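Notes, Module 5: Reading structure tokens.

Key idea: the token line is not a picture. It is a compressed description, and you learn to read it the same way you learned to read a sequence, by spotting repeated patterns. We will look at two proteins. The first is printed below with its tokens.
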Amino acid sequence: MFFKDIIGQEEVKRHLIQSVKNGYIPHARLLYGPEGVGKIALALAYARYLSCTNRSEDDACGHCPSCIKYNKLSHPDLHFVFPIIKNDKKKKEICDDYLTEWRTFVGQNPYFNLRSWLNFMGAENSQAMIYAKESEEIMRKLNLKAYESEYKIMIIWLPEKMHPACSNKLLKIIEEPPLHTVFLLVSENPDEIIGTIQSRTQWLPIPPILPEDMDKALSSEVTDDSERSNLVHLANGSYLKALEIIETGLAVKEYLELFKTIMRNCWQSDVKNMKALTETFAGLGRERQKYFLAYAQNMIRENFLYRLNLPEINYLNLEEATFSDKFSPYIHERNVAELMEELALAEKHIESNVNPRMVFFDLSMKIAVLIKR
């Protein structure tokens, strides 16, 4: 991964590159932000640039021995820690036991989340974590001399998933690492990392990808300008979310029809059709269910703004706007916040594998009350 391959994030790239040029190399950085915005890609590009022996002004050279090894993520001074599923039968207890799979996975697309990593391992419904034993491996590796590079680099993806025993054992080495050791912690929920590790790192926020950068990145995937504009808006700065929406194959028009149906049933308090619609939702599969709920949250927000006549921050296509002419009066100050909360809670429940029929029926009953306020 090179800086040039990363979607947007120009300000973050400039900051990282300039810090290397100035010789300012913090021993522990915490890159944090929403999923799908390029955090792990930035960590990899920064690590490559730091290790490159023939850097250009704005990127690694791509030709030196270090860069060639980085192409396969096999540089001997580059180390990874990431959540895994412990498998005693296959003797897989530490991250290095999954290193071959990890290199293949990251090499395919550096925009991913924990769910896609679990799917790749064939452990979708398992709980992954960084186990206590990993701390011994980290200290063993970092107490050795660097093989080829000036720096030993340890990338820890999702440090919030570290077992407390692992976190506590790493405090000393993160605070006072061996010479020329760099920790890059890549997090989506930094507040869940123990405070003593938080305080030992330099925080670097990674914001959502700008709409114009996302639009450019998606131009080869979605050629229709209107459809791509809606996709960019729904992705909300996450390239991963945009790709997942495309991969689900559920068009925005279908989301809109489902949204119109559930709102119509709720307004009419049509319990029979509410229940029938739960079967439709159950048949979508978990990913499509989640993206419908994300779309529904977006529609509630857009209808609230539509009612307030704020076109400069309102993004609706023609069909959505036509529907919103009549629907938007029902989304107002008395119910918008609670509607958003209930939809977000339903999305969280789907993520946690709660029965979708229960989730969508319960959601429908709550919407039926809120929409009539």
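Here is the second protein, with the sequence above and the tokens below, as before.
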Amino acid sequence: MVLNYIWIGFFVISLFVAIGHALFMHDTSVFERVVSSTFEMSEFAVMNIALPLSGVMILWLGLMNIGEKAGAINFLSKIIGPFFSKLFPEIPKDHPASGLLVMNFAANMLGLDNAATPMGLKAMESLQEINPKKEEASNAQIMFLALNTSGLTIIPITILAQRAIMGASNPTDVFVPLLISTFFSTLTAILYVGIRQRLDIWNRVVIGWILGIALLISLIVYAISHVPGGVAFSISKVGGNFILFLIIMLFVCAGALKRVNVYEAFIDGAKKGFETSVRILPYLVGMLVGIGVFRASGAMDLLCDALTSLFSFFFSDTRFVDALPTAIMKPLSGSGAKAMMVEAMKTYGPDSFVARLTCLFQGAADTTFYIIALYFGSVGIKKTRYAVTAGLVADLGGVVAAIIVAYLFFG
């Protein structure tokens, strides 16, 4: 129901803004841009997202099936079980869903987007199996979505690479601030959803795991801060890809040791990849078209201008306002937010305060509406309950943390 109102809102607001542009600014081409955006975003959803995603999903769902048959997923479930039993009390003990959630979160933390999406879809499918109300999001699915939209990333390869391409003097100088920002985004998601679901999130197990993750991030921060920027970038890039390849080899070798017909297991799992891609396509097209119309009509620009005026009234130092368009765009469109990040680096310089803050915004959260449309669409969830709110609250936590951290690190 929430997505329904949001989707209608995109079109209604866009209509009034477009009419305003035509009447008061004599910009009649706005209607052409809006209509063109519907075709462009429809094509983008199919050609740039669905088709490439199909290939990746065919590969990774095949590998995941090998991992399941080899017992690797169940092994991960037992390790992470005590922690997930507190955040996901609906998941039965040693259920494969726990291992799939671990794989998805690990891929996200390593910045392996191509691998994380198929793993996340497989995890959502597993959660749907234990969901008593098939058209309504369960508590476990909402927690899973909130943690995904919080975008906890330890190795932000894409952002570091983009800074290097744009000529930053030290591409990795945003690494530590980004880790801190994304950690607080995830922490916000856990607290908000935990309170809404009345979970026991203050017990020793949950606190212990959160402190453990914080310690891990601290150790990574310490290690990275004591090596040259170029070396740090190489370590991040090589480390992430090595771990991904290691996962693939472990699945295949474990399957062979368990006497699993590895190739047939791969084929059986891969068959589901294309089916899932087709199933999620209408949800992707619908959401991306709504977002495209909202942007093409000029409504996004008006929103950014309004926020700029609002914050300028309350704060004396408003340098962060120039970076806000990236923060606003990120929940709506990952590619749009990336374009704004690159534009900020080009306009203000890659080493400017604004450019660095846009990088933090880009890495501190994920594309909330895209993820919800993708994951819920894959299992036929129609009633999202407070999943959208949880995702946006997590995004807000990341944005606030990013602004504070940016001033602390970059003045």
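Summary for the second protein:
- The chain has a mean pLDDT of 80.
- Residues 87 and 199 are 7 Å apart (CA to CA).
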